[in-house]
Design goal:
By secondary structure, the chain is of the alpha/beta class. Helix content is 40%, strand content 20%. Strands 1, 2, 3, 4, 5, 6, 7, 8, 9 and 10 form a 10-stranded mixed beta sheet that branches. Strand 5, helix 5 and strand 6 form a beta-alpha-beta unit. Helix 2 packs across helix 10 and helix 10 packs across helix 13.
């Protein structure tokens, strides 16, 4: 009798263990991302001029992605800015980049190689157009740049593209009406400080460290540009991405002296091509949104990345991988 009970007890114990294992297995299946492995591989990311916002953002994004996608290696490539960034990605010289929407549209309208392959992953933050001058300067508007020495950004940079269009809207020709120097944010502030130029153009997130540091070393101010929006829009499709914007008074406190500045803004996009791996693209898009606050602690403009508007990447269609991400977080 005792042997029979013992046998029955063992059988029930085994059945209970088996049932427990089944439940445990189902729990693991539910909790673990089975079949959804982290992306693997290597990718290149084209950033911008050393010390500028694109480069800083790229470095911080790479660090954030290293935590989210530990099996992906990201190589950062410095560039002259948006125009070179778009060309690199479209022609396969980089996998991802940041570029302003106007530069993307120009490349598409110009029929650049690989333009039809370009895709968007996220709308990031806005660049604000700066014209920086000494506080004592007689330059009060873009029209006053006639006859002046002006740094207009490096060739193939988004800054030079914007400078050319702003000057046209002000009735000036970049090549004829002023002395244009191909200097970017890495050298232009020092040229202004030393009196080698009268003004420089810049387009970047707020605040841009180089401008902020310059304002702490010498008395500068920002030239208003908000009155040029209508003239810009009349230039055609490439210029429709500029909108009126206001630099808040605390963007550059020393330069602005508690006054806001009416200027222009243009959206930045995270750009890739239809050849990018969907899983990798989904993962990087997720990192961009999830790391907003961490990156924003260093690059204040990144705080403006918004899930509600990030998927509006006009003029580019969304990459399929990015589309998967937005579907996954849709309420």
């Amino acid at each position: 009798m005792f042997a029979a009970l013992s046998h029955l007890t063992r059988r029930r114990a085994l059945q209970g263990s088996a049932a427990g294992l089944v439940v445990f297995g189902l729990l693991l299946w539910w909790l673990l991302p089975v079949g959804d492995e982290s992306p693997k591989g290597q990718m290149s990311f084209s950033t911008g001029v050393k010390g500028a916002v694109y480069e800083t953002y790229g470095n911080l994004l790479r660090s954030a992605a290293a935590k989210d996608m530990p099996d992906v290696t990201i190589d950062l490539l410095n560039s002259q800015g948006s125009q070179q960034n778009v060309q690199r990605v479209a022609t396969g010289k980089a996998d991802f980049t940041i570029a302003a929407a106007d530069a993307v549209e120009k490349y598409r309208l110009d029929g650049g190689p690989g333009a039809d392959r370009l895709r968007g992953c996220a709308r990031l933050y806005d660049d604000y157009v700066h014209i920086v001058v000494r506080r004592s300067s007689d330059i009060m508007s873009a029209r006053d740049l006639r006859g002046k020495k002006v740094a207009v950004g490096q060739p193939r940079s988004g800054v030079q593209l914007i400078a050319d269009r702003v000057l046209q809207a002000a009735g000036l020709d970049l090549k004829k009406d002023l002395t244009a120097l191909p200097a970017g944010i890495d050298t232009a502030p020092e040229l202004l400080r030393r009196g080698k130029i009268d003004a420089f153009f810049w387009s970047g997130g707020l605040p841009t460290t180089s401008v902020q540091k310059l304002s702490e070393r010498m008395s500068i101010r920002l030239v208003p540009l908000g009155d040029l929006v209508d003239a810009l829009h009349r230039q055609g499709r490439e210029s429709r991405y500029y909108r009126a914007a206001v630099m808040p008074a605390d963007a550059y406190p020393e330069a602005q002296q508690n006054a806001s500045v009416r200027t222009l803004a243009v959206a930045n996009l995270l750009v890739t091509t239809n050849r990018a791996d969907p899983k990798l693209t989904e993962g990087l898009t997720r990192t961009v949104i999830d790391s907003r606050d961490r990156i924003g602690a260093r690059v204040h403009a990144a705080q403006l990345v918004d899930l509600r508007t990030a998927l509006y990447t006009h003029p580019l269609a969304l990459h399929e991988g990015a589309r998967r991400y937005y579907r996954s977080v849709k309420p």
